[in-house]
Amino acid sequence: MSDREYPPECTYELWMPTLDFTRANAAVTWAYMMRQGVRFVMPPQVAALPRVEDRAAALADAERQRLATADLYYLDAAACRVAGEVELRHQAVEQLLPSAAGFLVWEEPPMFLTGGIPIRAATWGVAYDGGTWVSWWSDTLVAARLGLCSPEAVMGTGPLTFHEEVHLPPQAWPTQAGDPSDPTYGMFRGLFGAWTAIDTGAVEEQALVPLPRVRKQARRQLQVEAPPVRCFTPSTSGGTATSPQTIVRRMLAGLLLDRPYPGELPAELAPWHCYVKDSGHCLLVVLDPIEEGSMPSAGGPARVEDACVPVPVKAVLRAGWRIGEGGYVHAAVRYDLKLGVITDPQDDEF
């Protein structure tokens, strides 16, 4: 039994009640807050709805979708400190995200609100315009302990309270992440620092598999599958590059299922394994020559990862492969601009 107040397994204890809140109580709670003058960021089509109830319901439904499809992340206290010190690299947010949708918990909060309430978690997902929607959540349990809210609040909102959200347009980089004088700087710096630490390998990952009772609760009460928690601690190497699994999740967001490969893979290939819906067991590889698969990133040259595609494991092994710069797997597999990767159906593994 851990003596830490917020150990890695608390991620499930925070994620599931928060998802349940967006399903059951968020629409009513947020409609009340809107009537009290609390301002919410809204997509144009939501802001155009005439009724407060409809606007609140639309926001709650969108947040529910993000939480239901989120990858789960946890930074231990040491990783939080690394994230707070890592140098941010200005780039399009979409190129920094570790996955399209996520729920991240800090053991050591990146910021405290008035009265000492910590920001405990953040969620993100794809926005209506292809940009990124980010929400931050404060710690209701601490607020109740400090006497800043009633214990009944925990029953209504769960262990987290919705604090603030922001819409980042496509290819955007928020000024708040680099302006210590901004009142929201701590939230932005904490989240963007976490993303950067993951992306550069400054922190390394270990998966926490959900217990059977957690899986059962998620399925029965929330009708979702509980994913592993991606737990991060400082990297022993200090970090130099994005991990293969981060690239896999970023490139194939929404298409992955958590299924290990049934056979043995060469050590160089194993980190690039993924199970893709409708494609089965694959490896994320760079098609040779790289130019045929590259898509230029905004305002700059093509990134190697933009040339990556999932290819059935057997097809890669059959075609032959090599490890290129950055550890990427290169394979000469047939590719058609309209049809995509062309492989033998016998290479598919489900």
Question: Could you describe the 3D structure shown?
Answer:
The protein is α+β, with helices and mostly antiparallel strands and 350 residues long. Helix content is 31%, strand content 22%. It is built from eleven helices and 15 strands. The strands form three sheets. The chain has a seven-stranded mixed sheet, sandwiched between helices. Strands 8, 9, 10, 11, 12 and 13 form a six-stranded mixed sheet that branches. A hairpin with a 5-residue loop joins strand 3 and strand 4. Helix 1 packs antiparallel against helix 4 and helix 1 packs parallel to helix 9. The longest helix has 17 residues.
Topology summary:
Blueprint: H1 10-24, H2 26-35, H3 44-47, H4 52-68, E1 71-75, H5 77-85, E2 102-106, E3 119-126, E4 132-139, H6 140-145, H7 152-157, E5 160-168, H8 185-200, E6 203-208, H9 212-222, E7 229-234, H10 244-251, E8 256-257, E9 273-276, E10 280-287, E11 308-312, H11 313-319, E12 321-323, E13 329-331, E14 335-336, E15 340-341
Parallel strand pairs: 1-2, 1-7, 10-13
Antiparallel strand pairs: 2-3, 3-4, 4-5, 6-7, 8-9, 9-10, 10-11, 12-13, 14-15
Helix pairs in contact: 1-4, 1-9, 2-4, 5-8
Question: Features of this protein?
Answer:
6-stranded mixed beta sheet; 15 strands; 22% strand; alpha+beta
